[in-house]
Amino acid sequence: MSIRVFVPRDTTALALGADAIANRLAREAAARGEPITLVRNGSRGLAWLEPLVEVETPTGRFAYGPVTSADIPALLESGMLEGSVNHSLALGPTEDIDYLARQQRLTFARIGITDPLSIDDYRAHSGFVGLEAALALEPQGIVEEVKASGLRGRGGAAFPTGIKWQTVLDTPADQKYIVCNADEGDSGTFADRLVMECDPYMLIEGMTIAGLAVKATQGYIYLRSEYPLAKEVLDEAIARAEQAGFLGENLCGSGRAFHLEVRLGAGAYICGEETSLLESLEGKRGLVRFKPPLPAIEGLFGRPTVVNNVLSLAAVPFILAEGAEAYASHGMGRSRGTLALQLAGNVQRGGLIELAFGTTLRTLMEEFGGGTLSGKPLRAVQVGGPLGAYLPEAQWDLPLDYEAFAAESAVLGHGGVVMFDESVDMAEQARFSMEFCKVESCGKCTPCRIGSTRGVEVIDRIRANHNREDNLALLHDLCETMVDGSLCAMGGMTPFPVQSALKYFPDDFQRAANGDRS
Amino acid sequence: MNKSQEWSLQSIQTEINALHHKPGALLPILHALQDRFGFIPSEAIPLIAESLQQTRAEVHGVISFYHHFRTTPPGRHVVQICRAEACQSVGARQLEAHAKARLGVDYHQTTPDREITLEAVYCLGNCACGPSIRVDDSVRGRVTPEAFDALLDELQTRPLEVMA
């Protein structure tokens, strides 16, 4: 039997040359008379080691990375196919890599291990066990299980998932929908992408369970157009799941139905806001709706709709398979279970880190991240995407917990952690926050639409030392207006990074844009 | 590479007919047209409006709302540079300035030889290995200005026609 060699094919591995590596490996191994079976697995989420090549041996999988195509001959020569560790890129047994071994992977337990599109692989790793458990329960029983798990929406708002499902279950209608928010637009986040590219059946299973729980028979995955590979993988996974009876008219022979379709967004950040997303799915401009009515009561096409983030839905199969208690036993306070953190930006060892709530930012950035990529001192960290505050060193000991962050006017959001070294100009970052809001505002409410444009202008005047003190006062006032007066989180939270920059990095606003102190 | 086909009223109508029965069909139709023709010809608007029983203003409003949809043909390749925070922290601003200077165009513009259309993008989901760019449908990571130049050379290398 030929040796199985794994070369990942998620976006990050491909962006760093994984295809060329796979081709060269196959060619060189054949030339050496050592035929291999190439498996294009998902990523383990250790982005800094990508492309991470693994070899299956009788004692487990051995890792090599980050590999370039030019390294292949020497790696083969060193005995890589036998799991040898006689090469500088050899990392030993994959599961023993500290970064991975220290995580608590519940949602991402399978990621990078399996071939993402293989249903056999998925089933061999506890796939569809949650669905089978759900099929044995009444809808209310499924909802109770999700409630008991303490799962809260992982998209950013952290609303209890079980309560949302209960509302949809309790609202009678001829048609209900499950909508997966896969418009992962926050900079520094890629956990949704990893789920979709590397373990798509988990999302399909989670959505199907949601459908059974609230009696919805149609689901849509609203996917951002910036993720072409995720689209390709999901479309293929849905087709195969239908073929195998895990989607469609007769789920696992139960006589119950659930249909699923991927819909592409079109480059609008605002469509990650749930009501804007629903408008977009209906074929309209992505204008934010007034709430109430809640989408759970009047959502897609006016029908009761569950709108959940990818990670919320992806957590559901584990909860149903292992029981609510197994999930709820992780975490702290009201933040139960695990959080998929994404360490990004100026970092030595970036990647996906799934941990129970409660770890500190410092642990994450230093022990996992290993400090900045540039080697310069770390200065600021933005948590929770472009609407999240910039945190100075004084706040790095905050535990990663929804309530602890909220108490400091910060947000965990979707778990993105973006690190900046000392070269960052925080006035420039504040300007970008306003500029981004200006580009992405849906335009429905005035504080967001006009406020962001004025925000860019005011910051430009401050940086040009034009009536600095007056303009700083004006910027504070503008931020307050946006926070209090905007219709949704876009305008309402854009001031968070701006205000945090003003509060914690005031010196950066006291110098001209060219960097000179005035 | 851009493999766009020439559009015709008939081929536009074929794309519309294949999708107009779907609930919320407008975005899928617009994607299908842009995927096939590289952009959405203005002549498509009345056809879509008619098929979906909407006004032309509604269709135009949707096209202009979304950054992804274009109404003019792109160059042979579309290059998107990520402008978001994670890439900024590892040099995206320098890369952006370099790319604009090297190509002699700003965002939403195409080089005079119609080779490269430059676009901004806000996150490609490759945030631990930036700066990131997308060339047509493939993402590239850790793109330094030098790597960007090498990529352009690769994209713009076309075999010369040899006279028999």
Automatic annotation (TrEMBL), chain B:
<dbReference type="Pfam" id="PF01257">
    <property type="entry name" value="2Fe-2S_thioredx"/>
</dbReference>
<keyword id="KW-0479">Metal-binding</keyword>
<keyword id="KW-0001">2Fe-2S</keyword>
<dbReference type="InterPro" id="IPR028431">
    <property type="entry name" value="NADP_DH_HndA-like"/>
</dbReference>
<keyword id="KW-0411">Iron-sulfur</keyword>
<dbReference type="InterPro" id="IPR002023">
    <property type="entry name" value="NuoE-like"/>
</dbReference>
<keyword id="KW-0408">Iron</keyword>
<dbReference type="InterPro" id="IPR041921">
    <property type="entry name" value="NuoE_N"/>
</dbReference>
<dbReference type="InterPro" id="IPR036249">
    <property type="entry name" value="Thioredoxin-like_sf"/>
</dbReference>
<comment type="similarity">
    <text>Belongs to the complex I 24 kDa subunit family.</text>
</comment>
<protein>
    <recommendedName>
        <fullName>NADH-quinone oxidoreductase subunit E</fullName>
    </recommendedName>
</protein>
